[in-house]
Structure formats: structure tokens, C-alpha cells
Amino acid sequence: MVCGDQKYIYPADFFHPDAPIPEAPLVNKYFTKVTLPIGASGALILGNYLTSKPLYTAIHKHFIAIPVAFAIACFYDDYMVKKCARRDAIIYDYIITHPKDFPPIERVKYKDCLDRWVPKRFH
């Protein structure tokens, strides 16, 4: 893909459909699946507080809201994965069909990019 000892970087390699996909971090994997049910339960507790009821009144609503919120979070995660895959496929197709707009980029090391640096010392 992009890493390695290649002399040039090809922009299409970033969006190639067969390229290996790095595993998502733990927070990204479970964020919506945890926060949405907690938020739903918190919203029910807040509603009870604002209407001056005991906080856990109508506990059956929690037993319904938490699994429903978890299911919504799962569907949302799947939707976002499919949406991003579709976007990447469109970008990849555009790069492949318009190669003159995306020439290979020559790899440059940091030591070749950085200018000489001399600290100014005031006495």
C-alpha cells in the first residue's frame, strides 16, 4: 500500500478496495453502542426529575429504551461503515478514471524538507 520502500506514492492506493483496513480503536468501536443507551436512560431519569417524580419511576421504560437505543446505535454504525465504503469507492473510481489529475507523488524524507535551524541567542 502506502508504506514501504517505494520511490513514489500513488494516490489510488489510499482508496483501493482490496487494501487492508486497519482495525478501529476500541473507543471508536463501542462509543455509540455505549453512549446512546446511557444517554437514553439519562434522558428518562432527567424527565422524571423535571416532572418532580422519583428518579427511577416507570423503570419499565428503561428496560425498553436501553435495548432500543443499542439497536439504533448498531444500525447507525453499520450505516456509517457502508456510507464511508461507498464514498471511498467513488473517490477510487474518480482517481482511476482521471490519472492525469493525480500524478504519483515522490517520497521525500524529513531531512530533505527541513531547513537549517540556528537558535537566536540574545545576550
From TrEMBL:
Annotated membrane topology: Single-pass membrane protein
Pfam families reported in the protein's UniProt record: NDUF_C2
Biological processes, Gene Ontology terms: mitochondrial electron transport, NADH to ubiquinone
GO cellular component: mitochondrial inner membrane
Principal location: mitochondrion
Keyword NAD annotated: no
Keyword tags: Electron transport, Membrane, Mitochondrion, Mitochondrion inner membrane, Respiratory chain, Transmembrane, Transmembrane helix, Transport
InterPro entries reported in the protein's UniProt record: NDUC2
Protein's cellular compartments: Mitochondrion inner membrane
Entry similarity comment: Belongs to the complex I NDUFC2 subunit family.
Name of the protein in question: NADH dehydrogenase [ubiquinone] 1 subunit C2
